[in-house]
Structure formats: structure tokens, C-alpha cells
Q: What sequence folds into this?
């Protein structure tokens, strides 16, 4: 892809979020089409369209493409409206069954955006209080053949939207850092299960993580997916808006201390670089000093793989391969990160072997 397309893409996103004021290149029809595909690959069509709305008439994309783009934005808005409604319904359902819950990512993060209706929504991730055994026993009454993994189980699909029920928000490959992470989740759980907000109308009430929790969790979510299948700029933009909520000196010290315990400070530095280069985030919102070398490597991975790695050749091959071949492919993918993130890389194969037998144990829960 021509470099000027990528640079114009970054400029258009900055226009959309309000940190930029122009695009430097005049694009022809083919270049606009390439830019559209890049925005689609990174699930940032809605945000980019907010930038297009600020362009001069002579800078706009061709009218046919502009109309297609506008229609995508209308669809994204409709999806967000539906997700707001469904997220509230799922929250209420579990509440009636005696479970407190927290909506992870999704509509809770969307509300932080300047234009929430322009963020591409996904599925519903809900963290349920009660512990793995109790929550899984409830899920199995409804879905006896469900297939749980360490941190979640797929639940009912509602109006075409899938739901993941989380026993814990996430995990880490390393036994030691995962133990530290699970302790953090346990210590912070009460604040999360009582943090109620409203979405687009007063009837849509859900519980969401605090900003302090999201400074750890959303960064971990990006880190986790980088190791698993890949990550896109939409997830980076989520973290941009998390940091834009601000923090005190004491709060940033707490966040950095926790990231140090999880051995994620280097990744935090790489992320700060991406947030600065792509979104031009203000320095006062940076958690750490940006790390250029690590950041460029991370940004390259993002541009290759796209949203959750779905545009990576490895992703397509993995979908058609056996379990053993997928495991070998995943190990090869993760080895790229050995010098930067040795703990998670080295523990990766060990975790997968342990997890294979752990899933067999989960099937015995009733």
C-alpha cells in the first residue's frame, strides 16, 4: 500500500477525533478506494467519516464512494442503538437471576467517544460475579453443551449478537503474572460491580469498569490479542479514549505500578508511541515515555493484521488447519515477541498445554 495512503488515513482519523485539522494529500478515485478499504480493515469507517465531514468540497472522495461510506455510518449507528438495548437487557437478565455483572469493553467504552454512534460495535462481553463454578453451572442449565475456556464461555445469541460470559475479565500466559492479575481483578471487583451508568436513554442501565480499571484492562486486552491473533487500530482508539478521561499523579503511579507487576511496562511504552504517532494524543495523557522501536514494531503488526488479525495470512491459514497445525502456527507467531515480551512468549506453549487439560476438567462442572 502506498505510504501516502497510510499517512492520509492517520490524518483522516485525527480529523475525526479532533486532534488534526487537514489532510496533506489530494487523492484520486483509486486512492480513495484504497483508503476506504484500509478504514474498513481497521473497523474505523465511522471515525474516518467524521473526518471526511470536515474536508473541503474539493477534497472529498468521489460521490458514489461518499454515499456508500455514509450508508455504512448509518448501519453502524443502528448497530450501536441495538447493542445499547441488548446490553441493558442482558444486564437485567443476570440481575434477575441473582448475578451482579459488568460490561467489558463494548458499549461501556463507546460512551467515552465524542461520537459513540460512530464506533464499530462488536459482541457483548459480560463479567459475572459468583466464581467460575457457580456461573458455569448456571450457563449449563441453559446450554448443556457449552464449551467453556479459562476465562469465559459463549452464551445465548440475542437478536444476532453473541454474548460471552466471563468468569474473569482476562488472563496471562505466565503462571506468576496471571496470579498477580487475578488478585488484581478480585481486589477491584467490588468497584466494578457497583459502577452503574446509563447509555442512550434512561432505560438502558448497565455496570461498567471504572477508568482506573480500564487503564489496566483495555491495555491488557490489546496485549492479549496481539499474542493470540492480532489487534487493530479500533482497539488502540478505545485506549486513547480511556486515557483521555484523565488521571491524577497518584492514579498514574498506581497504574504504572500495576503494569510493572504484570510485566507490561515495555508494551505500555510501545502503545504510547502508537497513540502519539497515529492519534496525536497529548503528552499529559501518556502513562509512560513512548518507545519508538517497540512502537514501530507494534504499529507494523497492527497495519498488517487489521481488526483482531482477520486480514493476516496466518489467520486465514489457521482457520483451515488442524488443531496441531494451529498450535504450531500460534507458537511461531508468538516467538516474534520473544525479545520484547519474553515472559508471555516463553509461557505461551506451557499455558496452551495446561489449558487443554483444564478445559477437560471444566466439562465436569454441573
A:
Amino acid at each position: 500500500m502506498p505510504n501516502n495512503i497510510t499517512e492520509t488515513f492517520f490524518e483522516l482519523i485525527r480529523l475525526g477525533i479532533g486532534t488534526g485539522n487537514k489532510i496533506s494529500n489530494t487523492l484520486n478515485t483509486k486512492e480513495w478506494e484504497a483508503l476506504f478499504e484500509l478504514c474498513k480493515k481497521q473497523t474505523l469507517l465511522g471515525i474516518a467519516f467524521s473526518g471526511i465531514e470536515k474536508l473541503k468540497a474539493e477534497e472529498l472522495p468521489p460521490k458514489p464512494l461518499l454515499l456508500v461510506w455514509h450508508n455504512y455510518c448509518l448501519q453502524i449507528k443502528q448497530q450501536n442503538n441495538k447493542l445499547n438495548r441488548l446490553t441493558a437487557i442482558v444486564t437485567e437478565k443476570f440481575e434477575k437471576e441473582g448475578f451482579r455483572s459488568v460490561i467489558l469493553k463494548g458499549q461501556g467504552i463507546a460512551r467515552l467517544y465524542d461520537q459513540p454512534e460512530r464506533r464499530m460495535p462488536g459482541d457483548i462481553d459480560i463479567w459475572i460475579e459468583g466464581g467460575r463454578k457457580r456461573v458455569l453451572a448456571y450457563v449449563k442449565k441453559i446450554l448443556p453443551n457449552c464449551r467453556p475456556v479459562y476465562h469465559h464461555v459463549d452464551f445465548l445469541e440475542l437478536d444476532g449478537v453473541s454474548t460471552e460470559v466471563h468468569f474473569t475479565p482476562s488472563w496471562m500466559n505466565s503462571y506468576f503474572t496471571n496470579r498477580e492479575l487475578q488478585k488484581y481483578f478480585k481486589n477491584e471487583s467490588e468497584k466494578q460491580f457497583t459502577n452503574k451508568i446509563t447509555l442512550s436513554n434512561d432505560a438502558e442501565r448497565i455496570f461498567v469498569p471504572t477508568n482506573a480499571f480500564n487503564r489496566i484492562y483495555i491495555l491488557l486486552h490489546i496485549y492479549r490479542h496481539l499474542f493470540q491473533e492480532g489487534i487493530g487500530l479500533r482497539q488502540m482508539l478505545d485506549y486513547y479514549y480511556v486515557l483521555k478521561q484523565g488521571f491524577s499523579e497518584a492514579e498514574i503511579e498506581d497504574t504504572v505500578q500495576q503494569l510493572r507487576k504484570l510485566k507490561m511496562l515495555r508494551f505500555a511504552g510501545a502503545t504510547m508511541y502508537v497513540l502519539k504517532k497515529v492519534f496525536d494524543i497529548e503528552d499529559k495523557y501518556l502513562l509512560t515515555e513512548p518507545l519508538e522501536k517497540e512502537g514501530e514494531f507494534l504499529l507494523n503488526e497492527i497495519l498488517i493484521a487489521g481488526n483482531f488479525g482477520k486480514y493476516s495470512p496466518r489467520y486465514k491459514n489457521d482457520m483451515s488447519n488442524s488443531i496441531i497445525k494451529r498450535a504450531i502456527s500460534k507458537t511461531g507467531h508468538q516467538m516474534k515477541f520473544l525479545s520484547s515480551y519474553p515472559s508471555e512468549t516463553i509461557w505461551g506453549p506451557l499455558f496452551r498445554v495446561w489449558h487443554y487439560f483444564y478445559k477437560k476438567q471444566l466439562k465436569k462442572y454441573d
Q: What stands out?
A: The radius of gyration is 21 Å.
